[in-house]
Fold each of these.
Amino acid sequence: MNLRTVSLASLLFLACVLPATAKETKEITYKFKNAEPVVFSHDYHLGKYNNNCRICHNTLFNLKNRKRFTMVEMEKGKSCGACHTGMKAFSVANDAECGRCHKGKPRPVVFKMKGATDAVFKHEAHVPKLGGKCRTCHSNQNITGGRKVTMAQMEKGKSCGACHDDKKAFTVAGNCGKCHNGMAPPKTVVFKIKGVADATFSHDFHLGMYKCADCHTRLFAYRAGAKRYTMADMAKGKSCGACHSGKDAFASTGDCGKCHPGLKPAKLTWKTSLGEAFFDHEFHLGMYKCEECHTKIFQYRKGASSATMAQMEGGKSCGTCHNGKDAFSVKDDCVKCHNM
């Protein structure tokens, strides 16, 4: 038997063996967290294409670099979408055909939230309202882009906010209990403040007058301490100061004890060349309110508004009142402030 005869015999052998090998290729199962698996049948497709593996490999599916594709990508011709266009085979962009690959009913999607109850998306509630048109969401990258989004982003139209805008459906800016199952009334938020009593915010009290949407996320992100503001910021309308302006509610520049329970302003002392100087909050609060000094004259932090005696004599700091008219002058009676 010559070499040519051997080669011909080998080719005939391979021609017989390869189809059998291809036919034995297993089904591919794609698992989903919230739906039944999608099963790709090699047996069915190889029968359609005369056992020609190269129709898909490696032109559409790279066996060395396996990658999962989204429905949006398939609709643009990637993966299964290369053939399933409505011409060669049924289209992946046809809502009526979804059930040919996706068997069973989609399950609820549960989103775990830190500091809040789980949010639940129910397919069984949305699919009938959309007339079974799955692509309303699944072909929109803005809705099902795969990334987690914040409530602030939803309010701008991302994810659920694309529909839940108070026009097509209830707004994501309120109605928290409709998505967060078993949501208990929000807790009182405590803000730890260095050098002064903790500030507290009662959700229970405020929800008696306002809705979640009045504050979140226009004024506050849905996370305590996400952004801190100074009392000076609040006096300019930031944070709590948006309402606590002295018009809509008591001003943030006064009535400190309403937010800082148990507040007892300390007696302040400063070391100077003339001996220790002191300021008695208790004495002054018998005649004035916090807002008459804070933050117009003094910041809410010791040393932030320090001034020299010369500056005080010019009307700065303590000299605003201690001018010899409203109160004794800083030029006289040094022992009233300095332990000499």
Amino acid sequence: MTLILDGAIFDRDEGGTLNAGEVQWITTGSGIIHSEDVRTKGKVRLLQLWLTLPKNKRSIAPGFQAINVNAVPVRHELGAEIQVYSGSSGGLHSGTRNHVPVIMVEINLEPNASAEQDIPTFIQWLCICH
């Protein structure tokens, strides 16, 4: 999974541009040729998360899933904005198709604000807090 925090990259794998707030999930499965040869467009900050597929899913068909910034569900609370990139948050569910359960949210808080995120004990999770 690649999440663009700032800037943009051109990704050869899918032949498209990923902009700030957008995500690309890659499932390698039975095999995929993946290139780290990306072209940046200006200064870029990105986050990559690599997950191991369960043994019974390692032969599934490979694939890509790009999530446009406008398709990311956003949860609003008093002083908080929460983007749901994978899994769910406060009743909102992302459209990602994951073979490994993962919750990935970005939480933007105003000073002195707080937000809650339920995280089951069996799930992988990633929280980006500002």
